[in-house]
Task: inverse folding
């Protein structure tokens, strides 16, 4: 049987692994989405400028222009045609619509960019391994190239066009107005593009690019441009919160059923404490809580049966005690008057004997009901066993004719002590109610032994035959305390039969009286006896 704590541990471990896989899956696709959004938002203008630049140049000039772009950015461009069918129909559709297509590779560390070539059934492809510096440099170079193509008012018009293509600020400033380090100033003076990373506290890092505008005193300033951060603080906080929420939910759904089952067990125990009947469906499973719940249920059922039996016994004993006590009181009152003293004293003694007999019967029955003994099973010869009991109670038979029906002499497996008590009770019960004859018999039916006693007395009505197996039960005036007994004899017989994995049956005998039989299996085993 698995420990409940082991099952909780395995459940939590499985939940953690599932949550980890879910977080990794979500993080992967979230990163793909963030990279794509970053490129489209900040560098779509860059790829449009590349496409327009390629379209402006023909032949050798195009090759020279692309070569210059490659030297500056460390990128390598390849030209492809649509009839090569390298792209899917969906990718071609997006390329024609947006003029460029961006696809993040599965490893997330690189991506592919496809740039549409105007007026041609072709496109450029380039692999990006950097989502920041190289793209900023090529963006600045392309802007310088675009502005260098114009002079005077046309250059301002071109600057306005560039500003419309990009979402970040694009300005022209004199070198002296720039607030950057001396090192970056020297880089700009040498005619190179300076890229500056700005990191301020917990905010998203940004970059700015400074590119000299030819021989003019102006510098092209790009930015600030958001720098792509793989794990920004906001994303980390969101992931941690998601993990905590999922862990809390997993813990709740793992522990809640166990808590609910423990609440059911607690409710059963509370019902036991309040002496209420409980009717619950047995818990399914092999864990400790299921075992505890079923144990509590069986215990409660047993306790209620014992309490009900005890209450019935107390009520019956109270009723049985009243009669002899009342008679003793009456006889004592007569004794005070000095009338028939000897007869009264004898009556008092008889009533005291009756009380003593009643107490002895009650104690015997109570002991049998309370204890589940380990039967001492042994093999006995049925002829000798029955004959010894009949001879032992010969005096009680008085003038009755007692006959035996023993067609088969065989050995039986029983507890001699208890089966002796059961047969004695049946025999004495028959002696009390028989008119002239009593018969004791033994048979073997199929896989059972059958031991029975019948008399020619008034018998027991069929509707009452089950009732007389309960303690303190008598069905009519012909079978009352005036004949002796208190309704415990057959109840004791029924208990002993049950211990032997058998039962008691009452029917009408061949003489019209009661025939009471005990049936128990031939192959009774000690293990099955203890299990009962």
Result:
């Amino acid at each position: 049987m698995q420990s409940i704590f082991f099952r909780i541990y395995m459940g939590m471990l499985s939940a953690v692994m599932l949550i980890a896989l879910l977080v990794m899956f979500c993080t992967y696709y979230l990163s793909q989405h963030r990279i794509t959004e970053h490129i489209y938002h900040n560098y779509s203008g860059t790829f449009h400028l590349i496409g327009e630049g390629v379209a402006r140049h023909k032949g050798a000039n195009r090759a020279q222009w692309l070569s210059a772009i490659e030297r500056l950015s460390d990128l390598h461009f390849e030209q492809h045609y649509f009839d090569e069918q390298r792209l899917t129909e969906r990718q071609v559709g997006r390329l024609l619509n947006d003029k460029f297509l961006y696809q993040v590779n599965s490893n997330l560390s690189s991506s592919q960019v496809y740039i549409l070539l105007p007026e041609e059934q072709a496109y450029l492809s380039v692999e990006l391994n950097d989502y920041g510096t190289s793209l900023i440099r090529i963006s600045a170079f392309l802007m310088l190239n675009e502005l260098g193509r114009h002079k005077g008012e046309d250059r301002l018009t071109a600057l306005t066009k560039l500003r419309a293509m990009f979402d970040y600020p694009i300005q022209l400033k004199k070198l002296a107005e720039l607030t950057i380090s001396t090192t970056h100033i020297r880089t700009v003076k040498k005619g190179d593009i300076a890229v500056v990373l700005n990191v301020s506290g917990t905010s998203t890092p940004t970059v700015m690019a400074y590119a000299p505008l030819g021989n003019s005193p102006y510098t092209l300033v790009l930015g600030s441009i958001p720098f792509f951060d793989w794990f920004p603080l906001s994303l980390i906080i969101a992931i941690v919160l998601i993990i905590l929420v999922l862990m809390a939910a997993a813990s709740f759904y793992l522990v809640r059923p166990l808590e609910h089952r423990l609440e059911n067990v607690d409710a059963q125990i509370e019902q036991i404490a309040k002496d209420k009947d409980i009717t619950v469906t047995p818990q399914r499973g092999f864990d400790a809580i299921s075992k505890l719940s079923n144990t509590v249920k069986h215990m409660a059922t047993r306790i209620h049966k014992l309490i009900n039996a005890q209450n019935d016994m107390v009520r019956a004993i109270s009723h049985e005690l009243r009669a002899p006590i009342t008679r003793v009181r009456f006889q004592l009152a007569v004794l005070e008057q000095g009338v028939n003293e000897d007869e009264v004293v004898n009556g008092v003694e008889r009533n005291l004997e009756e009380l003593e007999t009643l107490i002895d019967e009650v104690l015997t029955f109570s002991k049998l009901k309370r204890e589940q003994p380990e039967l001492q099973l042994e093999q006995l010869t049925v002829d000798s066993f029955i004959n010894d009991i009949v001879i032992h109670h010969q005096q009680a038979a008085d003038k009755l004719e007692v006959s035996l029906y023993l067609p088969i002499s065989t050995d039986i497996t029983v507890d001699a002590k208890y089966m002796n008590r059961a047969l004695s009770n049946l025999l004495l019960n028959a002696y009390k109610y028989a008119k002239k004859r009593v018969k004791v018999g033994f048979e073997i039916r199929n896989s059972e032994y059958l031991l029975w006693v019948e008399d020619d007395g008034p018998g027991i009505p069929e509707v009452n035959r089950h009732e007389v197996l309960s303690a303190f039960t008598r069905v009519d005036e012909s079978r009352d305390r005036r004949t002796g007994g208190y309704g415990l004899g057959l109840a004791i017989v029924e208990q002993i039969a049950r211990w032997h994995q058998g039962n008691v049956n009452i029917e009408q005998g061949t003489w019209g009286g009661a025939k009471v039989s005990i049936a128990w299996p031939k192959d009774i085993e000690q293990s099955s006896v203890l299990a009962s």
About this structure: The CA atoms of residues 327 and 341 lie 15 Å apart.
